[in-house]
Amino acid sequence: LGIQDRDPEPIVQNLLHLLKPGGWISWGEYDYSQWQIMQTTEGPQSGIDGLTTLLDYIGTIGGTRPNWARNFWPARLHEMFKANGLIDIAEDRRPFPKELLQAQLDTALMASEEVSFGAIDPLGDGRGAKARELTANCFHHRSNTAYNIDRLTVIGRKPES
């Protein structure tokens, strides 16, 4: 699903209209609001400052808007479920296993480069080039550094009445 204006509440409300009384909604997302930089293997850390800088730069679309990753709506999904009348709400958070983090970082670096071309380049002022420079720096220094996020699942039930 594509979430308009970082606001999934209209989708939650639409799902509630479609849901029979007593039915369940289960919603899974990645929660970037609390990402954590970490070491993946023993040895000297490298690339931490560069990775934080890159994630903040991409998160603000080249410094042009508030950081979507630091104020990411999945962290509030359980509150939206409650505000819309769902009951028996449960939340499950699971970080990625350490052995997958390097592959996840490589995927994120590729996505960062795509964002630099598609979303940041059109803004001008060399912002796209700066994003690609930050991405290349992270790729070069990524030997045992990665970031982790939670895989978040929230469930809730529509009351019977």
List keywords for this structure.
alpha+beta; 161 residues; flat; three-stranded antiparallel beta sheet; 39% helix
Number of helices: 5
Query: Helix proportion of residues, in percent?
Result: 25-40%
Report the portion of residues in β strands.
15-25%
* DSSP strand count: 3
Characterization of the model:
This protein has 161 residues and is of the alpha+beta class. The protein is built from 5 helices and 3 strands; from the N terminus they run αβααβααβ. Strands 1-3-2 form a 3-stranded antiparallel beta sheet. The model has no long low-confidence stretch (mean pLDDT 89).
Topology:
Elements: H1 9-18, E1 24-39, H2 48-59, H3 77-83, E2 87-95, H4 101-120, H5 127-140, E3 145-157
Antiparallel strand pairs: 1-3, 2-3
Helix pairs in contact: 2-5, 4-5
Quick take:
By secondary structure, the protein is α+β, with helices and mostly antiparallel strands.
